[in-house]
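Same chain as my last thread, 229 residues:
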Amino acid sequence: MITRLAIPLSLITLIVFGVLRSNPGDAQAIDAYHEHIAELINEIPIDVDGWVGQQVPLPQSATSLLNPNGIVARQYFNEDKGVIATLMIVQCRDARDMGGHYPPVCYPANGWTDKYDGEVLISALGEQSLRVYGFERTAGKVEREIAIYSLFALPTGILTNSMRDVRELIANYEYRKYGAAQLQIMIQGGVAAEDHAWILEEMYEIARPAIEAVLDAQLGKEQDDGRES
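reply #2:
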């Protein structure tokens, strides 16, 4: 009798547990949070402070895998310095959608070769560090090199260049429903190295309102405030 009742009782326990954890008010707040972020991403200006922008296409694989709540991919040309940078920001409603799509995965899948053979390179954006990926590709007689600067914004208030932090968020049942955002800044190989830091600052300023909105969920803030320093 105990064996026969074990499965039904376990199912009942799971159902009750799920009901206790579901909160319609929370669901509405989460929806409003995602809607606000999507609006800010959609409002990222095309032309701003000397930069002239244009939309660039995204691979179908990226949009299908990421299932984005908000996404922008835009190439900006600076008229004064004659440089081009590409800004991509994507935010997902479920952090799990972010888990399999970041530069070491998506660029090789589209024909690019890792220039640094997996070596970890870090660059500074003010006090924030970004992960740097270098890729190259030859098509006929045309050789191209690009540098990808990558950063994740998490609803826990964390800006990180590490996929490990994203996976920790994914493992948290309560937090992962707030999603995550990824920022990528692409600079072509012909741009002088001394211009990279300035370009990164300019591109980040364009994306800042959307990035700060992701961080503003402040998940876990109550627990952090209650800890001893």
